[in-house]
Automatic annotation (TrEMBL):
The keyword ATP-binding does not apply. Residues 33-363 form the Aminotransferase class I/classII large domain. Pfam families: Aminotran_1_2. This is histidinol-phosphate transaminase.
Length: 414
């Protein structure tokens, strides 16, 4: 279904958000979208890095990359990891897929809500997924003792946690995570997905990657797309003891990493201070953003150590309507969480962005609130309507002309 120039139908299929490419194509007019949906570091790579990549683009695209073992060795050198304990792949999603194929035999426990592939992947291959529901009343905090008791009661053979978790950004201190994995040494596998851990500032060394390398059944997963702000390149890695890491590495195709990934792996050591600075700026923005969102009456903002904030909308607000409103009227792309298991449409996830973008978001939400209460017409506010007026005429008694209220599905199964 089209609304303004944006194809809102793109937002209503599947468990994941549409790509920014697909949305831009649907708009067709080159108007940029401000992306609050895809959790990417906005301060990295630096413009210098992009310029260097652009300068070498022709040879990067023309030639085969080195094989994945060589690229992995370089990454290990840069990050100070033992190469036998690392397997590198085309995004951590590829590793989730192979962990499922190779190491999840019958059942896996996972707290929900979380990243959809952790529930969908094993379900797609016929495994039993034991879902441990996190509670809104606890701010979605994960109690590891209760989770261990749940794993024991279900007899799950594999256990997963995401630290920080997506979509709430909940964080567990390193010592608690170690206690957790050490309580489960009899399981086939314990996975700690640390895809967002570089954004944590609550602890100086929050990762258990070095500990995973010397444990019998622990895998730590890292995504490089989020922290390096390069989702499109698709790279991530895991750390585990040499037997597990070797098993996964041997299964992966020889040239599963592309030349852009190889180029970036060779660049990052020269930009370490810029990278650290990008994380510092992001942590600052996270505080400012939570503060700024406090201007929206009735909005609940959950504490996060990730590069996103989960919010609960005020009573009477619809996440689907608000998402469509922000996109069609303000060009702001947000993640509505109704299609995540364990969430409802009352929840949105906002990627942390610089303050000037957050002001646009807050103004958009305040305008939506006024509109809901009948105080303004959505098509008339200043700065509004960048993407055209809705095709539905607005009547005073028809204050919700958005597709979500007109019978379109608001949530899929997960
Ligand atoms: C917790 C978690 N793990 C893994 C991934 C996948 O990351 P990648 O882009 O490296 O495949 C995501 C993506 O959002 C995620 O939220």
């Amino acid at each position: 279904m089209r609304h303004g120039n944006v194809d809102l139908g793109l937002l209503r299929t599947g468990a994941h958000s549409p790509s920014v490419f697909a949305l831009n194509r649907s708009m067709g007019d080159g108007t940029p979208i401000v992306d609050f949906c895809i959790p990417c570091n906005p301060y990295f790579p630096t413009p210098d890095m992009f310029a260097a990549l652009a300068q070498n683009l022709e040879s990067i695209l023309k030639y085969y990359p080195s094989d994945s073992a060589e690229i992995t060795n370089k990454l290990c050198g840069v990050l100070g990891l033992h190469q036998k304990t690392v397997a590198m792949a085309n995004g951590s999603t590829e590793l989730i897929t192979w962990l499922d194929h190779l190491m999840i035999k019958e059942s896996v426990a996972i707290p929900i809500p979380t990243f959809g592939r952790w529930t969908d992947q094993p379900l797609e291959t016929g495994k039993r997924v034991d879902m441990f529901p996190l509670q809104e009343a606890d701010g979605y905090a994960l109690d590891l003792e209760e989770y261990v008791a749940f794993i024991r009661s279900r007899g799950s053979r594999v256990a997963v946690i995401c630290n920080p978790n997506n979509p709430d950004g909940g964080f567990l201190p390193r010592r608690e995570v170690l206690r957790f994995v050490d309580a489960l040494t009899d399981l086939d596998l314990v996975v700690v997905d640390e895809s967002f851990i570089d954004f944590v500032e609550a602890e100086r060394q929050p990762s258990i990657a070095p500990d995973a390398a010397i444990r019998p059944n622990v895998v730590v997963l890292k995504s490089l797309g989020k922290n390096f702000g390069l989702h499109g390149i698709r790279f991530g890695y895991l750390v585990a003891n040499p037997q597990i890491a070797g098993k996964i590495a041997k299964t992966l195709p020889k040239w599963n990493l592309n030349s852009l990934a190889e180029t970036v792996v060779h660049m990052i050591q020269d930009y370490e201070s810029e990278y650290r600075e990008s994380l510092r700026l992001l942590a600052r923005d996270r505080y400012q953003m939570a503060d700024e969102l406090g201007r929206v009456p009735g909005l609940t903002v959950f504490p996060s150590q990730g590069n996103f904030l989960l919010v609960k909308l005020p009573p009477g607000w619809s996440g689907v309507d608000l998402r469509d409103y922000l996109l069609t009227r303000r060009g702001l792309f947000v993640r509505e969480c109704g299609n995540k298991l364990g969430m409802t449409s009352q929840f949105l996830r906002f990627v942390v962005r610089p303050q000037q973008d957050v002001r646009l978001l807050v103004e958009g939400m305040l305008a939506y609130g006024r509109y809901l209460h009948g105080e303004s017409s959505p098509s008339l506010s200043a700065g509004d309507d960048r993407y055209g007026t809705p095709s539905t005429a607005l009547e005073p008694d028809n204050l919700i002309p958005y597709p979500g209220r007109r019978g379109l599905a608001t949530a899929t199964a997960n």
